[in-house]
Amino acid sequence: MASREFRFKRILRLTAIFLLLPLLSSAQQGRWESLTQQAFQLYEGGRVAEAANVLAEAAKEAEKLFGPNHPNLADNLNNLAFLYDEQGKLAQAEPLYLRSLAIREKAFGPNHESVAESLNNLATLYFARGEPEKAEPMFNRALAIREKALGSEHPSVIQSVLNLAKFQESVGKYVVAERLFLRTLSLQEKALGAEHLDTGQNLINLARLFGSEGRCPEAQARTERALKIFEKSFGLEHPVIADALDRLAHLHETQGDRCWMRPEATPEESRQLYVKAEGFQKRALAMREKLLGPNHTAVAQSLNNMAHLIVKLNRGKEAEPLYKRAIAIWEKGGPGDARNLSAVIANLGDLYASQGRHAEAQATFQRVLTLTENSMGRDNPGLALILRKQADSYAASGKKAQADPLRARANSLQASALRSAQNLEEQGRALQAQNQYDRAERYLREALTLREFLLGAEHLDLAQPLQELAANYEQQKNYRAPQPLLQQALAIVRKKLGEKNPRVAELKRMIERVRAAAGA
Questions:
Q1: What is the DSSP track for 41-56?
Q2: Are 466 and 444 in contact (CB under 8 A)?
Q3: How far apart are CA 463 and CA 301, in angstroms?
Q4: Would you call 456 helix, strand, or coil by DSSP?
Q5: From CA 169, how far away is CA 152, in angstroms rounded?
């Protein structure tokens, strides 16, 4: 996991096939063949832009040699689009994918495997461009074609199921995503074996999904199984092993954070979970430093995560140099690292504030504010938290005149963001009324995430959204996902309204019902 921060959109990476076309013997076709081979070799060597230029020439030759509706031209166009896609040139890729799709449909019919490939690539492009409504039917159609043409256990079918699972997860349809990930896992275990690397990676996919739902024990079990697979394949030291250790550290830390949700939990239980998390994080950090070098961004990630844990273990003095080292690494990164840099600097600001070093905290939060405004705009909801922290630091220094306008701006941004959450909830309820529970899930989940980000995990205004999302999962016959949501809602209501409040009994009944349905 990267720096602890709210993420507005997950990035999804899907696969496309770069085809090496068969050799042709005609002298007239020699130039086309040579260009195609050259493009492939350039791509294999990581020279994507050069490969695209050469393949564009090959596509021109293919159209001259074979005509505008030949499958060889479709292959060249598909591969050229893929190369543009790799470079983020989506506007250039789309018409090529569409033309390749049209040629293949005409040449082979609508249910051919090459048509499925084109559909998958187009779906990937549309999703990357923020058009999931275009992407989803194409992912579904690609899967249906492959299942019919190749059978349910073919590797291409497994890949299509996995692509669709990742897509559904990314748009917040966790119930559908879970079923697809579990289906992929079953197919992989049957086709490849229980200890294959692809099986391990899909266990990580499931762990990530369960972690997003607060199902930490289930996520932990999948991650530990994946770690054993990775260690068997890669040995005890590999970047993939470090990633799994980092994930295990985060899951234990999250469980420690959530101990407040159980009345019987003690501070010592939280501390022990943090200690376990620190052990995993130490291994991940040492491994990343050794394998990737001391200035790699993955090392900065581990440094930040380690410092975050150490603060929770009341060892703030040890955390400061770790945060500073992480900041120095991220400062050398590219433009895409701005959000990670902001998150680490904000953590350092929190540390200064907790130590009463208010002048340093104010300067640090100001830097975060500037970075966030530059990278995400002045209306981003994340600014509300930074503004409020900066205001609190000024107030603690007795500087009310500086604190008040910051707090007023924070309140305005937060109010706007909460209205957005309310609109998302209304859309979710409207879809629920139409029995479209999987679509409603996305809106309810987004609204809940936004509220928790703005208000914190223990705010009373979270209890009802948590309960509504849990009920939506129950309607989809997913009985495990509601349990952590209902436990959080119950803890909030108990803490804020008391054990005798009627909502406590209602939530207890819901928890008993879903546990019974889940067989727990």
A1: HHHHTT-HHHHHHHHH
A2: no
A3: 32
A4: coil
A5: 22
Q: Which two tokens stand for residue 176?
A: 């559908």
- pTM for the predicted model, two decimal places: 0.83
What angle (nearest 5°) sits at the alpha carbon of residue 373, between those of residues 370 and 378?
135
Q: Which residue has the tokens 């975060």?
A: 368
What is d(CA 116, CA 104) in angstroms, rounded to the nearest whole number?
Answer: 10
Length of the chain as a residue count:
520
Report the Cα 30 to chain-centroid distance in Å. Answer: 45
- Angstrom distance (rounded) from CA 515 to CA 519: 6
Q: How far is residue 157 from each of residues 146, 153, 418, measured CA to CA in Å?
A: 6, 6, 41
pLDDT at 520 over 60: no
Q: Which amino acid is at 428?
A: G
Q: What is the C-alpha separation between 250 and 245, in angstroms, rounded?
A: 9
The dihedral built from the CA positions of residue 449, 450, 454 and 455, taken in this order, carries a sign that is negative
pLDDT of residue 336: 55
C-alpha dihedral (206, 212, 213, 214), degrees to nearest 10: 110
Residue 27 has a pLDDT of 57
Letter string b/e over residues 412-434, b meaning 16 or more CB atoms within 10 A of that residue's CB: ebbeebbeebeebbebbeebbee
Q: Distance between CA 84 and CA 43 in Å, rounded?
A: 12
Q: What angle do CA 121, 58, 141 make, to 5 degrees?
A: 20
Q: Which residue type does 270 have? A: S
Span 199-255, pLDDT tens digits:
999 999 999 999 999 999 999 999 999 999 999 999 999 999 999 999 999 999 999
**CA-based nearest residue to 102, from 68, 125, 135:** 68
Closest listed residue to residue 244, CA positions, set 209, 204, 216, 277: 204
DSSP one-letter string for 427-440: HHHHHHHTT-HHHH
